[in-house]
Amino acid sequence: MALKSTIMKVQLSLSDMDRHVYQDFNLTLAQHPSETDQRLMIRLLAFALNSCDGLEFTKGLSADDEPELWHVSYSEEIELWVELGLPDEKRLKKACNKSKKVVLYTYGENNQAIWWQKHQPKLYEFKNLSIFSLDYAATQALAALVDRGIKLAISIQDGEVWVNTDTTNIEIKPLQLM
Asked: Where are the alpha helices (DSSP H) in the chain?
């Protein structure tokens, strides 16, 4: 018998002073059985960092040909493609060819630097690609916030992110690699 996704309800209050986006969201996220809490929260963080009208969660781990998040225009052009993790160069090339803008958030304990060193020279060819590295300790702290009902306030200013609950404050400084 196949395991089912876990459904998470998220109340997100976003204050992005860098992009002048101030909005409250009621989101429903499906956590794939193989998805870690850390990855789920990074998806939510990526949503906040790229929030715009039309930004949607995709099938994620359940679909090989879709990103984690995307914004598709009314004319069915992919405006934004958001990836997570340490994908291979072919996947990023495909994303860059299909979308106007691609954003990748890398995470992990010891493997980000190795991945970056290996792929960096080839990735500079993709002019519509931005890559941000997320600190392992900060993303682990985010993972500790997972619950079936999550209530978060996320503030973004000068590239720094503050994630707040009633009892927790987490600072995240995404490091732009390119």
From this structure: 37-50, 89-98, 112-123, 136-143
Query: pTM (2 decimals)?
Result: 0.93
CB-based contact 58:69 (threshold 8 Å): yes
Report pLDDT for 102: 97
Residue tagged 């998806």 (tokens): 43
Beta-carbon contacts of 133 under 8 Å, excluding residues fewer than 6 positions away, are 105, 106, 107, 112, 116, 174, 175, 177
Specify the 3-state DSSP secondary structure of 106.
Answer: strand
- Do the domain assignments include residue 49? yes
Q: Residue 20 sits in which domain range?
A: 6-176
In the predicted structure, residue 147 carries a pLDDT above the cut 60 = yes
Question: Does 1 reside within a domain?
Answer: no
Cβ 81 vs Cβ 103: under 8 Å: yes
Contact 79, 71 (CB under 8 A): yes
At residue 97, the 3 state secondary structure works out as helix
Q: Which class for 48: exposed (0-12), middle (13-18), buried (19 or more C-beta within 10 A)?
A: buried
Question: Any idea what the CATH number is for the domain that residue 86 is in?
Answer: 3.10.640.10
